[in-house]
Amino acid sequence: MNKKFGVVMLSLLLTLTVVLSGCAKKQEPKEAMNAAAANAMQMTSYEMKSSFVIEDLQMKMAATEGNPNVDQVLTMLKNAELTLTGIHQAEPQQTEMQMGINLKGDMAMTFNIDMVMTKEKIYVKIPSIPMLPFPEDVVGKYLVMDLKELAEQAGETFNPESLDAQKSQKFATEVMNALIAEYDQAKYFKQIETKDAKLPEGVDAKQVVQFYITNENVKEALDILVNKAAPKIVDIAGKDEYREMLSLTKEDIEQAKKEVSSVDQGEFKKGLEELQKYLKINTFNITTAIDKKDFPVYQDLVMNVDFNDPETKDTVKLAVKGSTQYSKINEKQTFKIGIPKDADVITMEQFEESMGAY
Fold first, then answer.
1. Which residues pair with 321 in a beta bridge?
2. Cα atoms found within 13 Å of the Cα of residue 119, Cβ hemisphere only
3. Coil vs helix vs strand at 314
4. Secretion signal: which residues (predicted)?
5. Which of 99, 98, 84, 97 is nearest to 51 (CA)?
6. Which terminus of the chain is more solvent-facing, meaning fewer CB atoms within 10 Å of its CB: N or C?
7. What is the 3-state secondary structure (H, E, C) of 246-266?
8. pLDDT digit string (tens) for 289-321?
9. Cβ contacts of residue 180 below 8 Å, gap of 6+?
């Protein structure tokens, strides 16, 4: 009896070990990214926060050299930051976003714009912007735009599907899968240890995967994008459900198919060879953190490139960094702004009247 009990317990332990190992097992990088992209379609509600920073921007071009306006714009954009926080739910459809813009240099300024979107309306809170002063009676109010009315005024038919967040998400997922499928895992994907991924606080990832492009594979990467991925993406956009969402006609799709299929390969190959003469990729990484439920809970982009034209001596250096983090996925959401009350809302007509009297 003791022997039988021992065998049973050993079998249970072995079974449990196999099951737990299977749950914790990391997928191959490309497979993991595919699974995460597919699983993103199941995200019906979430909180998100994004940021995009221009870390470096330098330009030396004969056509603009010595132009103070260009120098001013470059200074303003360098280290410029765009932030976005939001809450989304699919049913009933409601999304709110708070966008922050922080510009540097002599024209430094910071301002925020709040937005609320429902199935048929968009509310935009009129901000206080030093360079673009609005009348005091409209600042802080929510400008409401009825999308159906706007479409009718423009002589068009309102397409509610254009604001269908779930369908947009599904479209983006199919496009992402089509892209990923064309790139070789050994050349473009790698696993990053979670402890080395420098994930932000609150991101609990079971696996971190990175897609990367270097000077060595950029020519092939662009070739794949144009000749293999682009035709598939056009086919996806041509599906009835997406074509209507994108407000494209069948003629638009047919024209796009002709354009992607009629690329002059000789000229294209020549262009790729020329590109390598003046493009230097210091860094181009897209890193995705995947949680235990296979949701892509965090993604960041790091890009640092140099353009040097050997003939004109023109140079451009651009370094940007962006990231998006998701939380409270498929949980009940609590909106911070909510649907603005009538007392806080003005119509387009009221806004125009106020601006005209200002």
1. 53, 302
2. 7
3. coil
4. 1-21
5. 84
6. N
7. CCCCHHHHHHHHHHHHCCCHH
8. 999 999 999 999 999 999 998 888 889 999 999
9. 30, 33, 34, 37, 211
Which two tokens mark 357?
A: 């009297």
- Count the alpha carbons within 13 Å of 128 in the hemisphere toward its beta carbon: 4
8 Å CB contact between 112 and 140: no
Instruction: Print the SS3 string covering 90-113.
Output: CCCCEEEEEEEEEECCCCCEEEEE
Q: What is the pLDDT of residues 153-203, one digit of tens each?
A: 777 666 666 667 777 878 888 888 888 889 999 999 999 999 999 899 889
Omega into 92 within 30° of 0, i.e. cis?
Answer: yes
The length of the chain in residues reads 358
221 by Cβ neighbours in 10 Å (0-12 / 13-18 / 19+) ranks as buried
Domain boundaries, the chain: 37-356
Measured distance CA(358)–CA(353) in Å, rounded? 9
Buried-exposed string 281-308: b where 16+ CB fall within 10 A, e elsewhere: beebbbbbbbbeebbbbbbbebbbbeee
